[in-house]
């Protein structure tokens, strides 16, 4: 969720569930979260055509940390 009054461009940013591999999944060019809007990712390791936002990793049902990083692998957020 983008709680700002402006869009956030995630092009070339990364998301990962592994602190030892910060560049695990790169957001495609043109990925934007609109102002006050949502962006949905599927952490299901299922991206057969590369068209949808399916990550190349799955999240554990038991819980784990996920990291959002900028294009230079600086931490933006984690949960």
Description:
- By secondary structure, this protein is mainly β.
- It is built from no helices and six strands.
- The strands form two sheets. It has a four-stranded antiparallel β-sheet, with no helix packed on it.
- The relative contact order is 0.28.
Instruction: Give the averaged pLDDT, no decimals.
Output: 92
Helix content: under 10%
Annotation field: number of helices? 0
Q: Largest sheet, order of strands side by side?
A: 3-2-5-6
Shape: globular
Low-confidence stretches: none
What structural category characterises the helix and strand content?
A: mainly beta
What's the order of the H and E elements?
Answer: EEEEEE
> What is the gyration radius calculated from CA atoms?
12 Å
What kind of assembly state do the chains in view correspond to?
Answer: single chain
Strand content: 15-25%
The tally of strands reads: 6
Main pleated sheet:
4 strands, antiparallel
Distance between the termini: 13 Å
